[in-house]
Design goal:
Elements (H helix, E strand, L loop, with lengths): L5 E4 L4 E3 L10 H12 L5 E2 H8 L7 H19 L3 E4 L3 E4 L2 E3 L2 E4 L16 E4 L3 E2 L6 H15 L6 E2 L2 H4 L9 H8 L3 E10 L2 E10 L4 E11 L3 H30 L7 H14 L2 H17 L4 H16 L6 H18 L4 H14 L3 H14 L4 H13 L3 H14 L7 H13 L3 H14 L4 H13 L5 H11 L5 H5 L6 H14 L5
Parallel strand pairs: 8-10, 8-11, 9-11
Antiparallel strand pairs: 1-2, 1-7, 3-5, 4-5, 6-7, 11-12, 12-13
């Protein structure tokens, strides 16, 4: 069997690796894989999968999604793409039938398109070894690591290594290369060695305009060259992902109304969502609901709407707070079911479960899965940081938020991880630090009522006279807020709720 191939033995009911050894899978996950294998090339509905593998009980969407995630993890990064999600319908496994088995062959680096009208695409051209042709192996390694890292970004289509490397040594206009590869963006760069140090420089170019939308460099020691390649790839990914997103938002804004797709609607919703105002959230909500009407299984849009509705409820901008919480959880669950391997959807669901259901076991499991899939994402780190805050793991939360801010120091949503750090310090009883950080957030986003609540509680616990003035401003922005509202907050440990509510009480927040 060729390197990287797997096979499913339909007589012995086993998944086997290239050497013929069994690959371990949980019982239900294996049963689901075998069912898909027996119907290879055809979509098997979620209902069929649930009825066959959970005959004696009702299977939740999360149970099915977890099994799919297990299977993809067992198949590995190259072969996992043979298991595809049929939007809103079920799953399909692709392979070649043999005598009593199904052969699953690896793909060559390209990610499968998702059902978006205009998914952004990128090619990473072979990095040039500047000044020392003997270092070309390192430049090639960096290029391959970056291709692999970018392939983890679910909303981005990445051209395979074999196609990108066909342009090695060719001097062509970026527009010509992009046209031949059918991509919107090109990443190119150089690698230069100085004694025991390596410097990598990179440039991200929008092919249509020739505009450079990102440039950066990374320096490191040659001592452990493979670790350095991974570090360079992680650095490039964390830098260019938000720049690519902003470029896509600008492109969507320029499109005429008649050509708006679900993807464009999603992109147009992001700036008002990031503005963190009631008007902004309502505008984002309308755009996201319109996107989901056009594509009911659009995982990123479902996750963004779960975030939007949840925050509107948290800020008191929905008439029925509990209904908002319930809808956020339901949307997050749909997002995960639509794409169980989407780290942003997993992280958003983890946040929603922790914030609005107190289901901390599932929330922590989803957070761990999201971080394992995409640790170099500011959004993933931030959502997971909030899960750790509400689970009472302040130091672990601060670690996630600080990593997120290092990845994107000028991110328009910097207040998101900053509030997480402030809240984690609050529950660690470092009230003066929490006050300082909340004041920084409110200087950026004056309408952020959640930051005002923690400012009030932290000032009161720090015995600061400004606590009552902060409460006056909070009640001006949110007249109906009370200790009864605060008492509905969900934390893993009772002492956390007591610390929060008692601080607000000392600050003068009314009982009802």
């Amino acid at each position: 069997m060729a390197t990287g191939q797997l096979s499913i033995d339909l007589e012995r009911n086993e998944l086997r690796d290239g050497a013929g050894h069994p690959v371990a899978l949980r019982r239900r996950s294996l049963g689901l894989l075998l069912q898909l294998a027996r119907h290879a090339g055809h979509v098997v509905s979620k209902q069929e999968l649930a009825e066959t593998n959970w005959p004696d009980r009702i299977a939740t969407d999360d149970s099915l999604a977890r099994c799919v995630s297990d299977i993809r993890a067992a198949l590995g990064p190259q072969v996992r793409k043979t298991l595809r999600t049929a939007s809103g319908r079920g799953y399909m496994l692709s392979g070649w039938r043999g005598e009593g088995s199904l052969l699953l062959a690896p793909s060559v680096g390209e990610t499968q398109p998702v059902p978006l009208d205009e998914r952004p695409s990128i090619a990473v051209l072979p990095f040039i070894s500047a000044g020392d042709s003997g270092q070309s192996y390192f430049a090639d390694g960096v290029t391959e690591e970056i291709i692999t890292a970018l392939s983890r970004v679910r909303w981005l289509f990445v051209i395979a290594r074999s196609s990108s490397f066909a342009y090695r040594g060719k001097v062509l206009d970026v527009r010509q290369i992009a046209s031949e590869l059918g991509v919107r963006y090109l990443l190119e760069g150089t690698v230069r060695r100085y004694g025991d140090r390596i410097r990598m420089t990179g440039h991200l170019i929008e092919a249509e305009t020739g505009r450079q939308i990102w440039a950066g460099r990374h320096d490191g020691e040659v001592a452990n060259i493979f670790v350095l390649q991974e570090q360079v790839a992680a650095s490039v990914l964390s830098a260019i992902e938000p720049n690519l997103r902003m470029a896509e938002i600008e492109r969507a804004r320029r499109k005429p109304p008649g050509n708006i797709s679900a993807y464009d609607l999603y992109l147009r919703a992001l700036p008002p969502l990031y503005a963190y105002t009631e008007a902004g959230f309502r505008e984002a909500e309308a755009l996201l609901r319109a996107a989901i009407e056009r594509d009911a299984a659009y995982s990123e849009a479902l996750a963004a709407l779960a975030d939007c509705v949840g925050r509107m409820a948290l800020n008191g901008w929905l008439a029925d707070r509990e209904a908002g919480f319930a809808e956020s959880r339901a949307l997050a669950r749909r997002a995960v079911l639509a794409d169980p391997e989407n780290p942003l959807s997993l992280a958003t669901a983890a946040w929603s479960y922790a914030m609005f259901s107190s289901d901390f076991d599932d929330a922590l499991e989803l957070a761990d899965r999201a971080l394992a899939l995409h640790p170099n994402s500011l959004a993933v780190r931030s959502y997971c940081g909030w899960v750790f805050v509400y689970a009472g793991e302040s130091e672990r939360a601060i670690e996630q938020f600080e990593a997120a801010r290092r990845m994107s120091p000028v991110d328009p949503r910097d207040y998101f991880p900053l509030l997480g750090i402030a809240t984690a310090h609050f529950f660690a009883r470092r009230f003066d630090v929490a006050v300082r950080l909340c004041e920084r957030i409110l200087a950026l986003v004056p309408s952020h009522t959640i930051a005002r609540r923690y400012l009030c509680a932290a000032l009161a616990h720090a015995d600061r006279t400004a606590a009552h003035d902060a409460t006056t401003e909070l009640l001006r922005l949110q007249p109906n807020y009370s200790l009864a509202n605060a008492g509905a907050s969900r934390f893993r440990h009772p002492w956390m709720l007591e610390l929060y509510v008692s601080g607000l009480r000392k600050a003068g927040v009314p009982e009802t």
